[in-house]
Amino acid sequence: MIILFSCFCYKHYCKSMAKRHCYNRDLEQDEAFIPAGESLKDLIDQSQSSGSGSGLPLLVQRTIAKQIQMVRQVGKGRYGEVWMGKWRGEKVAVKVFFTTEEASWFRETEIYQTVLMRHENILGFIAADIKGTGSWTQLYLITDYHENGSLYDFLKCTTLDNRALLKLAYSAACGLCHLHTEIYGTQGKPAIAHRDLKSKNILIKKNGTCCIADLGLAVKFNSDTNEVDVPLNTRVGTKRIVEEYQLPYYDMVPSDPSYEDMREVVCVKRLRPVVSNRWNSDECLRAILKLMSECWAHNPASRLTALRIKKTLAKMVESQDVKI
């Protein structure tokens, strides 16, 4: 019995030492990719200065994903869940996709890693990875974390003055303009269309500006071939649901309208949302209303580009002495 017990203890000791050796080896490998003391900002700044312009190296991304500590769930959508996590003490957002939404995960990862994509008004991409075993799989997309949440949630609990309104509108326009802009060169950036831009897909940063998120439905335009790179995921836009306030066209279409319902109202009947008369009592709001009206002109060729919107809002920001 003593001999058997001794053998058992020795075997257990060997296993624990093997695990510890493996753990220490993993730590050494992780530190080889990401030295101790490096912050996410350091890593991203280094990747930007290296000239690639398409994000962190794959091994660095996988190392970060492996080291993430999930703290709490902060959101849920049709694609999966959003968690607040931590990497070496820094807060990050972790978007965990359902396995059925692999096409959205792949597309969003691809768009975020487009050369020259990084911009202060586009959600900061950190890493993407697939975790799993033979029985389960998780698709991770790791980004900057913004505790103020979405513009949708922010507006429900915040009253804006004109300066705050302009700051939000201008920064969102800057992000959209960057998406739409084609940058020419050997390491150029294609023009990108979001295709699902709404208040729930715009996040609020600590400084009161916006950044555009949720690029799973985005498409790229290739000017050389004059073709649009449409993803396999055929879903476009977001279906409306009943909210506690009255949505535009609430009295003209069902609460969950089809594409044809909206096409009939907007394109065939050429109806536009009704705006309260109180907008006309304020000079800033009148200017915003004029800008909105020019964006929804019946003739598509007459509608303003994102660059034109950005320039118009820039003048308003300057006149109101708004600090961006």
TrEMBL record:
Topology within the bilayer: Single-pass type I membrane protein
One annotated GO molecular function: transmembrane receptor protein serine/threonine kinase activity
Limits of the Protein kinase domain: 68-324
Annotated SUPFAM superfamilies: Protein kinase-like (PK-like)
Keywords: ATP-binding, Kinase, Manganese, Membrane, Nucleotide-binding, Receptor, Serine/threonine-protein kinase, Signal, Transferase, Transmembrane, Transmembrane helix
GS domain boundaries: 38-67
UniProt subcellular location: Membrane
Record Gene3D superfamilies: Phosphorylase Kinase, domain 1, Transferase(Phosphotransferase) domain 1
GO biological process terms on file: anatomical structure morphogenesis; cellular response to growth factor stimulus; tissue development
Pfam families to which the protein is assigned, alphabetical: PK_Tyr_Ser-Thr (PF07714), TGF_beta_GS (PF08515)
Matches recorded under InterPro entries: GS_dom, Kinase-like_dom_sf, Prot_kinase_dom, Protein_kinase_ATP_BS, Ser-Thr/Tyr_kinase_cat_dom, Ser/Thr_kinase_AS, TGFB_receptor
Enzyme class: transferase
Gene Ontology, cellular component aspect: plasma membrane; receptor complex
Main location: membrane
EC code(s) of this entry: 2.7.11.30
Residue positions binding ATP: 95
Sequence similarity: Belongs to the protein kinase superfamily. TKL Ser/Thr protein kinase family. TGFB receptor subfamily.
PANTHER family, sorted: BONE MORPHOGENETIC PROTEIN RECEPTOR TYPE-1A (PTHR23255:SF50), TRANSFORMING GROWTH FACTOR-BETA RECEPTOR TYPE I AND II (PTHR23255)
Name of this protein: receptor protein serine/threonine kinase
Source organism: Patagioenas fasciata monilis
Lineage: Eukaryota, Metazoa, Chordata, Craniata, Vertebrata
